[in-house]
Amino acid sequence: LCRAANLIVREDAVGNLFARWVGSDPSLAAIGTGSHTDAIPFAGAYDGTVGVLGGLEAIRALQRAGFQPRRSIELLMFTSEEPTRFGIGCLGSRLLSGSLQAGRAKTLSDKEGQSLDHVRTAAGFTGTLDDVVLPEGYYEAFLELHVEQGPVLEARNIPVGVVTAIAAPASLRIWLDGEGGHAGTVLMPQRHDAFLAASEISLAVESVVKSTGAIDTVGTVGVCDVFPGAVNSIPSRVKIEIDVRDIDGARRDAVLRAIDEACGRVTERRGVKLKKEVLNADPPAHSGRRALNALNQSCERCGISPFPLPSRAYHDSLFMSRITEVGMLFVRCREGV
Amino acid sequence: LCRAANLIVREDAVGNLFARWVGSDPSLAAIGTGSHTDAIPFAGAYDGTVGVLGGLEAIRALQRAGFQPRRSIELLMFTSEEPTRFGIGCLGSRLLSGSLQAGRAKTLSDKEGQSLDHVRTAAGFTGTLDDVVLPEGYYEAFLELHVEQGPVLEARNIPVGVVTAIAAPASLRIWLDGEGGHAGTVLMPQRHDAFLAASEISLAVESVVKSTGAIDTVGTVGVCDVFPGAVNSIPSRVKIEIDVRDIDGARRDAVLRAIDEACGRVTERRGVKLKKEVLNADPPAHSGRRALNALNQSCERCGISPFPLPSRAYHDSLFMSRITEVGMLFVRCREGV
After folding, report:
1. pLDDT(A43) > 80
2. Which residue among A281, A302, A326 closes a domain?
3. What's the pLDDT at A85?
4. pLDDT top residue among A12 and A44
5. Last residue of a domain, one of A243, A266, A281
6. Domain count, chain B
7. How close B300 gets to chain A, by Cα (Å)?
8. Exposure string over B177-215, b if 16+ CB within 10 A, otherwise e
9. Residues of chain B with confidence (pLDDT) below 50
């Protein structure tokens, strides 16, 4: 499809796909657009895909209209936005924006111990991870079209929304080590139950997040693995994973500190040991002024009054914002898919 | 070993093993003793086994001393006391005491869907499950020797304890159904997080159990499975399993009612649905007066002042108590194993 539209296609060493419509002045920084085509189960047919096909269709519509761009326009299909096989999402955009260093990326391996480097070369991608990062000034701006995945546009029956900021995501993995034992024989005062500590910490996450008073602060404990996990065994070890997001980075960090304090109180009182791993704590992204203006004007030209909203999910644009001005357009979706 | 001691050995249809030293009046009900030889991981070398080998050694010691019993003495090795492959422990003693009906036992299957009937016949046990139940009056009394698995005898440095009662065990499986969603996009006030409901219920179990004020009441949430179980997904469904025990059956049942009430409050407030399954809720067993007297006298004859204590773990004797008078002797063990 890209080649049929006279786009020049290339792939980088990790599988990001670039399709460039060369402008009349190829020396200028390009305008990028695109998204991802991988998706988690039940994400629906549009997550990511609408941004890749939408970008291609935008290019083809401009071509049909006889438009001749001065700057090159480049369609991007990012690799591994959703899959967390190597522990993190947005692998492609993290690497090409330099948010993830090639050196660190080479140390990543999956659950079976296969390294990212092994997996990508086995999949036929040549070159080295060091080559993935884009040169400075490669893009003049980056725009992403995406389904909202939230309830706002659907509830208000608005077709599109202009994203003002992308929430700052952070995720933590916490190991709690207590003392196991037989559920019948260890008396209650002698217990150091790792799962009850995890329960208190999880409820503290909710309460700390709610106490900011800001609707944009969200926090979730999505993983809780209990060992040994038998009805007649006191849990000796529990792993929980916590996700905290906010469009205000400082407020997000204050929540993380309050969670730390709650962990300290709970583990001391219950005599349980804690080990914490910060999986990621990325800063938020704010949309560029020019990108916002362009998107708002486009909405008005189509007879839609521009509707601003933040993105609480994160997207490849969060990482593209490290190297260029970004803008996102959200499309209304039914029940988030 | 049993045959070498002139015992008549038979196996029943589910693998319970009987070795009888025929008394001078074989028409009288026998005295039973024994335990199990299976064990959970890390249970140590003595759990159960000490009662089987100890029973055999007691018989051999009596034989060496030239004792001639009037009643037959029968050594029992119960099948599947520990394994919960079919969802319950003490499978052998439940079946032969009629605590578990053969009809119900035939409906049991393991995680792979293999029925108990299939597994036991594949293992070479003939006859039908209906034949396992013992005829009325089969035993005059049943005595079990077992390691304590608790800290009392070790802490007080007492070699043996006479068990006065076996705690009434109950276990519940609870399914909580909330609403899933993306950890970034669903705002806090709109959430129905099944894991936070599970956390509150688990803490309520602890608080209800502690509030009885009795050291003999224990309660544990040993299983918590979270679906879908991803750091960026709000838990939509959680399964927890609760174990509650007490040597006072009425107090145990009051705890179960208080847990039900807490479940009702939590699920209503959080908008989460609950499904409860009572896996078992057995009554407690109290040791027989004659068995207690015999054990106390034996202690005194050995120069040990009799030390009474309850069993908070349950044992095959709990089910044997349904058909005959029981007594248990606990042996001191280091760190419960």
Report:
1. no
2. A281
3. 79
4. A12
5. A281
6. 2
7. 27
8. bbbbbbbbbbebeebbbbbbbbbbbbbbbbebbeebeee
9. none
ipTM over 0.90: no
Note whether B104 and B98 are within 8 A (CB).
Answer: no
Give CA–CA dist A182/B233, Å, rounded. Answer: 32
The Cα A197–Cα B205 span in angstroms is 13
Same domain, B262 and B332: no
The answer, yes or no, to whether residue A42 has pLDDT greater than 70, is no
Q: Does A68 touch chain B (CB under 8 A)?
A: no
What is the per-residue pLDDT for B184?
A: 85
Helix (H) or strand (E) holding B199: helix B194-210
In a domain, residue B72? The reply is yes
Is B268 found in the same domain as B293?
Answer: no
How far apart (Å, rounded) are the C-alpha atoms in residues B171 and B255?
12
Largest CA distance in chain A: 81
Q: Hey, is A263 helix, strand or coil?
A: helix
- Average pLDDT of the segment spanning A321-330: 94
Which DSSP symbol is given to B57?
Answer: H
Q: Which tens digits make up the pLDDT trace of A175-211?
A: 999 999 888 888 999 999 999 999 999 999 999 999 9
In a domain, B172, yes or no: yes
State whether B277 and B149 are in the same domain. no
Collapse the DSSP code of B89 into the 3-class scheme (helix H, G, I; strand E, B; otherwise coil) and give the result.
coil
Residue A163 lies in a domain: yes
Let me know if residue A51 belongs to a domain: yes
Residue A246 has pLDDT above 80, yes or no: yes
Same structural domain, B301 and B175 = no
- Partner A contacted by B121 (CB < 8 A): no
The mean pLDDT of A274-303, rounded to a whole number, is 92
CATH of the domain at A123: 3.40.630.10
E strand or H helix at A333:
none
Distance, in Å, from the CA atom of B222 to the CA atom of B220, rounded to the nearest integer, reads 6
* Chain B residue with Cα closest to A279: B231
Cβ contact B151–A210 (<8 Å): no
Is the predicted pLDDT of residue A34 greater than 90, yes or no?
Answer: yes
A148 interaction partners in chain B (CB closer than 8 Å): 185
How many pairs of residues across A and B have Cβ atoms under 8 Å apart?
182
Domain of B73?
8-167+284-336
A252 close contact with B: CB closer than 8 A: no
